[in-house]
UniProtKB/TrEMBL annotation:
Pfam families: Legum_prodom (PF20985), Peptidase_C13 (PF01650). This is Hemoglobinase. Keywords: Hydrolase, Protease, Signal, Thiol protease. It is an enzyme of class 3 (hydrolase). GO terms for cellular component: vacuole. Belongs to the peptidase C13 family. The keyword Lyase does not apply. The active site is at residues 143, 184. Residues 1-21 form the signal peptide. InterPro entries: AE, Legum_prodom, Legumain_prodom_sf, Peptidase_C13. It comes from the Eukaryota. The lineage of its organism: Eukaryota, Metazoa, Spiralia, Gnathifera, Rotifera. One of its GO terms (molecular function) is cysteine-type endopeptidase activity.
């Protein structure tokens, strides 16, 4: 009898131990659409392949991406997406949880908070069902600006992201969480906002003031295949035994290889040293992975030397296409016109936002006008900034456009020097009511 009780106790402890080990969950988001933004969705597809290969079940991986690449008329290899020149297909098997118009900031927040009722009838309806014993990995890639990242429909503000994270923590939605963000000025999504005591470790492609960079231009597809920060962390995960590599080591490798921007880390930095990459990206197959050969690694490094700031990607793609076309061909003339239009679009956007800044000071002549257009300030007036940028979106331009995103730090500065949102909004109306909302195609 005592022996039976002892065996039963051991079995119970084993069950409890298994339960307390928890599960891995992941949310992967590409916040853009369009062929020239190819790299964001290919990044997410590659990230999925890493997690899937490492044993995280599809039921625990939620993918949000517009899904307009595989069958795109510009795709020379229909049904296939690659993240590296001559690379393998990374699209096969990727879950189609949320695609097209369901890729929104609101749906992303509902997924993170596990709101199943809110997501009924939307995409796959999958949400994070993680609990206090589970590790969560979030990867986001797209365009960004001061205090926001873009989605195909709408933008997600830093304040809203961090309040969502705080709610996840208060509701015990995770044991520990890792966040990787690829976007321009992505450090501004977390800097001064993410606490260091809620079991989260995060890294970003850039600091709060600089661009992130595209890489791997592919002449066959006439677009960039990846983003520098993203392919660096993913190629590290592909090459290393991530069951032995710490999160901090992956940060160091990624930082060293991302030469154009400053890769940053936030949150509880001790987690980076304490935990392995595999605790968030899945246990490696058979306990280990094969490292890439030195030749392949050198080739990757050489190919990544040609990088392009996100804001310059469209112009770079058109310039490269133009250079490859014969003189006086019809297609060359068409691309030349498109390039001229794109350059003009960028100029109009820049001068319009400068005009909004100037107009904002017409009533209150405080001498800050030159300062706000020449020197970046740290964003603290989040509500004013949100209201002003939404007014620009309604009256002037689609703020998902990277040329607009690249200038929004000026709008943030207007709030930081003490102007009220209604003053800025009046300036927006005065400038953009004359122009009308510019429906630029991109």
């Amino acid at each position: 009898m005592r022996l039976q009780l002892f065996i039963a106790s051991i079995a119970l402890l084993a069950v409890i131990g298994t339960a307390s080990a928890g599960q891995n969950w992941a949310v992967l988001v590409a916040g853009s659409n369009g062929w020239y933004n190819y790299r964001h969705q290919s990044d997410v597809c590659h990230a999925y392949q890493i997690l899937h290969k490492n044993g995280i079940p599809d039921s625990n991986i939620i993918v949000m991406m517009y899904d307009d690449l595989a069958k795109n008329k510009q795709n020379p290899t229909p049904g296939i997406i690659i993240n590296h020149p001559n690379g393998q297909d990374v699209y096969k098997g990727v879950p189609h949880d949320y695609t097209g118009n369901t890729v929104t900031p609101k749906n992303f927040i509902n997924v993170l908070l596990g709101k199943k009722d809110a997501m009924k009838g939307v995409g796959s309806g999958k949400v994070l069902e993680s609990g206090p014993d589970d590790n969560v990995f979030i990867y986001f890639t797209d365009h960004g600006a001061t205090g926001l990242v873009a989605f195909p429909n709408g933008v997600l503000y830093a304040k809203d992201l961090n309040s969502t994270i705080a709610q996840m923590h208060s509701e015990n939605k995770y044991k520990e969480m890792v966040i990787y963000i690829e976007a321009c000025e992505s450090g501004s999504m977390l800097e001064g906002l993410l606490p260091d005591n809620i079991n989260i470790y995060a890294t970003t492609a850039s600091n709060a003031e600089e661009s992130s960079y595209a890489c791997y231009y592919d002449s066959k597809r006439q677009t960039y295949l990846g983003d520098l920060y993203s392919v660096n962390w993913m190629e590290d995960s592909d090459a290393e035994d991530i069951s032995k590599e710490s999160l901090f080591k992956q940060f160091q490798v990624t930082k060293q290889k991302t030469t154009e921007s400053h890769v940053m880390q936030y949150g509880d930095l001790t987690l980076g040293a304490k935990h392995t990459v595999s605790e968030f990206q899945g246990a490696t197959r058979n306990g280990k992975q094969q490292s890439v050969s030195p030749v392949v690694d050198r080739m990757n490094t050489l190919l990544k030397r040609e990088t392009t700031a996100t804001v310059d990607v469209r112009i770079s793609i058109l310039s490269k296409r133009l250079a490859d076309l014969p003189a006086n061909s019809e297609e060359r003339l068409s691309i030349k016109r498109e390039l001229a239009y794109t350059v003009r679009q960028r100029s109009i956007i820049s001068s319009t936002i400068d005009s909004i800044a100037k107009k904002s000071f017409e009533v209150n002549r405080s001498g800050y006008s030159d300062l706000v257009t020449s020197q970046r300030m740290k964003l603290t007036q989040h509500d004013c900034y949100k209201e002003a940028t939404q007014r620009i979106h309604a009256k002037c331009f689609d703020i998902q456009n990277e040329f607009v995103l690249n200038k929004l730090w000026i709008v943030a500065n207007l709030c930081e020097v003490g102007l009220h949102s209604f003053t800025i909004n009046n300036a927006v109306d005065a400038v953009c009511d004359v122009l009308g909302r510019q429906q630029f195609e991109y």
